[in-house]
Amino acid sequence: MIDKFLESHKLSGAEYLTLLEGWENQDIARRLSQEAVRIRDHYYGRKIFTRGLIEFTNYCKNNCYYCGIRNGNRNAGRYRLTEEEILKCCHMGYEMGHRTFVLQGGEDPWFTDEKTAAIIRRIKGEFPDCAVTLSIGEKSYESYRLFREAGADRYLLRHETADETLYRSLHPAGMSLKRRKQCLYDLKELGYQVGAGFMVGAPGQTLAHLAKDLVFLQELQPQMAGIGPFIPHHDTKYGDEKAGSIELTLFLLSVIRIMLPAVLLPATTALGTLDPTGREKGFMAGANVVMPNLSPMENRRLYELYDNKIGTREEEGESMESLAKRAQSAGCRLVSERGDAVML
Length: 344
Ligand code: 5AD
Known about the structure:
Strand content: 5-15%
CATH class: Alpha Beta
CATH topology: TIM Barrel
Low-confidence stretches: none
Bound molecules: 5'-deoxyadenosine
Helix content: 40-55%
């Protein structure tokens, strides 16, 4: 199957499953990562784009069973950043070299559409050369339109899993894959650069589920894809499950790079959390984005999606210098650019 995939860059669901069944074969993994890097280099060179991540609220009305900041977790200390605090993060991030800011948060009704739009307008007003990415969950078409008109450029909304049954087992009744997918199509229609994605090794997930995720990405054609290993959080019902595999995650990053050649593909925080050199490995598998945290240190600890999330301790401050070194050690270089998706 590897030969067919390397030739056509596109497979059926059943064929993706066969390809994935070879994930532990190092020869196959190497051939995939070589092709993935070649393709990335063709479209983006050896550039690694940075996104300054601002986790501005950890209040969430949802209760995704795997997530540490789910509504039902009474042990999670909650916070919201003020508009001034958010702008301060942007100023600091701009000085560091970021030209994209990602506003990420739980689904927090306190931030009404109007408040959110006002924040977007302020950031775009003060930093006209920067892109604003939103990652604030499922909203109506009208809300997405308002944010777009306020200046938002991109939107991250992982689909989490493209399998109905697995989706239902990971989320409470009231959330649905259908709605999730509709949001992604709405965002595309409104002209956002859209990011979908999923966890690798989520409880109950099989290779067949992952093959479905690949087929969904192939169909959606997102400009970005966020793929990271599942990591248990102690205050969830999956606290004792084992984490997803680094190697399988890297394998999938390469497959996605080949399938969606111009995709912006982050080496995720979860990858860096599970393996100290996980992000370097991600770059060598075809990733070209890194998303360091800009949130105030006292809040980071509270934005705990899973256990031991990196960047939450003072001493491991993710300076641009340390990220530049990571990029370099993978044969790449960190750049200070917006890093928009190349249009094919
Ligand atoms: N492990 C790994 N990733 C997680 N996310 C949420 N909880 C976990 C976890 N326990 C991911 C989800 C979500 C993103 C913000 O973080 O995919 O979309």
